[in-house]
Every structure is written in structure tokens, then in C-alpha cells.
User: What shape does this take?
Amino acid sequence: MVAEAQVWEALEEIPDPEIPVVSLVDLGVIRSVDVANGHVRIEFTPTFLGCPALEVMKRAMEEKVAGLGAEPEVEVISDDSWSTDRITPAGREKLRAAGFAPPAPREASAPKLVQLQANVFRCPYCGSTETRLENIFGPTPCRSLRYCDSCRQPFEQFKTI
Amino acid sequence: MNEQALLGLADDELVLGWRDSEWTGIAPLLEEDVAFSSIAQNEIGHARAVYELLAGPDGDADVLAFDRRPEEYRCAPLVELHLLEWAHTIARRWLYEVADEIRITALKQDSDTAVAGLAAKIDREEAYHRMHAEMWHDRLRDEPRFQAAVAELWPHALGVLPAELRGELVSRVGLGEVEATERGTHTDELAPMWEEMTMVRRSAPAGAQW
Assistant: This one.
């Protein structure tokens, strides 16, 4: 019989399809795992609804569970229970090490342009806060582009949502 | 929340996402190429989530998205317009985002928790679309060409919202109430877009293999 801990371990091995340095568990997108009689039910919260990798992630979870000899059921929960605050401390460190600035903590109200333009985002390469917003949008819905004025390195910033 | 209104929201996001994606590769700035492509992708993601909710667990969102005739879509005329001109494009993005925020804020209070939860999720993501629209609005608001585009699209913008929510749009945009270009009628520009949008689906009804 498959145990819940085994499922979490297996899910830990699934990389984010677009930022493969972090796993789905690091991202905090797996809200719950329920195991009963060889049936594994996973509640999964998408990062952005426009993320093209949703189907890929869902299939990867189903394959992992099937690989444990259990029957998978992945339910996509489209509410606001995921925020970038759910990314684990280990996940944030992996992002930083790979050149992505982790998201700022979410405040009570929605993020504002003036916050993104402020010098509070640290360059993941040199640690300077002399960085500026280049573009709110980046290669995927979850990322923005910034530029470090200290080491002259462009970098990607995980959006706070 | 009735199904027709949710279908209107999904159709708006699908069709505007399609229109915004028409700037991919040809926007006046590289940053805007990226911005419009990303916004378009996200709007289409919102459409998909609402279609999935409407289709139910055993339904198929693609049937709603692609298997209707153009006249069966519930989108507002504002999103149908083929606007490859920057002042009009930005005027539409800004007007749409202001109207959409009013609509989504109301939906977050819906008695159906699935609808309210999805609206809350969409609202979080739309914060970035609004920032983009506001940034351009701040930059262009005093330009006569932009003001003319806003005035021209204003009756269409009112048509995005049901009558009871229009008062707030009037006060936020600062233009007078005029006769709205209502949802339910379509511009001549929807049908050619629909031809293109549904081409793959119609040529491979059983599902295209990539």
C-alpha cells in the first residue's frame, strides 16, 4: 500500500516545466494529498491560469502516482488559495541560486506599479538593491524582467500574486 | 450569477486575448511585444477556466470555446474590433481593464463559491494587466489622439458591463453616460476572426495531433 509520505517524495521529483530548478512541492502548488485504498487524490492549485504548463504538470503528477502503483486523481483548484507566499523557503533559495529573484511577500492589497518600481528587489547575481523594473511581463505569466544597475545584469523576478 | 453572464466574461477574455495576440511580433516596442503576448496568454487562460467551470467536470471547455457559430458568442463588441493602431489598442486595453475590474469585484461576492473563488484568482492576476493599462494611460492621457480613441470606444466600453454596474465605470473613466453598444449584437469584425480562431478545430473535429 502506498503511503502519503511516498507520494510527497515522488511529487518532490517533478520539476516545474518552465523553471526546472524548483519542484512542484517547492512551489507550494500541491495543496493536499489524500491516500485511501490505493487511490491518491491530489489537490493542485495553478500559479497563473494562463500558464501553458498546467496540463504538463497534471500529467506528470498522474504518472508519478501511477508509478507508485496507485490510481491517481488530480483535481485542479481554481480559487485564490495559492499565492507566491506558498513558495517554500527552500524553493525561494533555489530560485535565487538559479538567477531568479524570488517574489516579494504579498501585502493585504494587490501589488502596485510603484512597489515594482521601488529599489527593494535584490539582484540574485550580486545582491545589490540598485535594480529597476524593465518590463512587468516576461517569458511566462509569472515573471517580470529587471535590470541591475550595479552589476549590469538583467534578471527575472517572480511576480508577487 | 447566471450562465449567460459568465459566458459573456469568458468570451470577452477569449476574443480580447486573440486580438491582443495580434501584436505578437509587430508591437512598436520589444517590451510591448512581450507584454501583449503575455497578457493575451493570460486572458485566454481566464477564458479557459470559466469555460471549464461552465462545462462542468465531465464537459469540454473547447466545445464552448470553438464549436459555436460566431453569432452565438456572448462577447461585447468592444473586444471584437480589429485595432492594429496603438492609440486605439491602448484605449481599449485601458477601458476594458477598468470595466473588467468592476465586473470581477462584483463576481467575488457571488453566492456560488466556485464562481467567487475563480473571480478572486482572476483578480489577483489581472492586477498586472491593470498596471500595464494604467502605465500607458498615465503616459497618453493628455494626447488628443488617445483622447479621441477613448471617446470613440466609450459606448463600446459601457456595453461590457450590465446596466447596474455602469455608473461606476462612468465615474472612474470620467466621461458622460451615452447609449451603450450592447452585448448580443456583433460587429462585422468577429466573423473573420472566428474563421481564423476555429480553423484548426473545424479541420480536425476529433482533436488535432501535434
